[in-house]
Design goal:
232 residues, alpha+beta, four-stranded antiparallel β-sheet, 7 helices, 9% strand
Length: 232
Amino acid sequence: MGVPYARRRTTPLGVAESIISTPGFQKAPAADSAAPADSAETAGEQVARRRRRIGVLLSVALLAYLLDLGSKLLVVARLEYHEPIRIAGDWVMLQAIRNPGAAFGMGAAMTIVFTVIATTVVVVICRLARKLYSLPWAIALGLLLGGAFGNLTDRIFRSPSTFRGAVVDFISVKHFAVFNLADSAIVCGGILVVLLSFLGTNPDGTTMREHTDRSDADAAEANSAEDGDGKD
């Protein structure tokens, strides 16, 4: 007699498969007495792996944030109200600029909107971290998180007022925007996210193809269980 699909999903192995979707996960018969132990062991390994990836995310984010914060403190103390420092003639200079808007000085009157956007980005990344198993995704999200926190710190604590603070920009490239290290981290993280998405890699470490194969396998398993019940 076939085992109903709904009942099989309530076994320890079925629960582990539903919660943890990773490449190379080997299915075992539901009636196998070793299934609960194997399932628990696999779940423990996946939890440890996720914690390592979250550690990478937080480390990258902290490094990006500290570099951005330190550079801004140095720029405000040594460069603000002084002549620009020319790195490559007029093409690359260091000059302190307070930017209440976004890149290229756009949206100067919408500082509070950019504060809300940055806060939303931080919340979204924290939610994604709960299903994070991919190292490249951990690095990408870490860069985004560190950059978002860097500019958000300016928005909250710098003048003219809380949540309306102007961001400190200081890297000036000719015919381009004046930006900071937080902006660089966000751009690099965004490019990496786009590349990973283009390659079909998901934050949980699987690929789009594996998700499709798993869905097809689950559908076939459900149909098989229904057929078995009908024959009985």
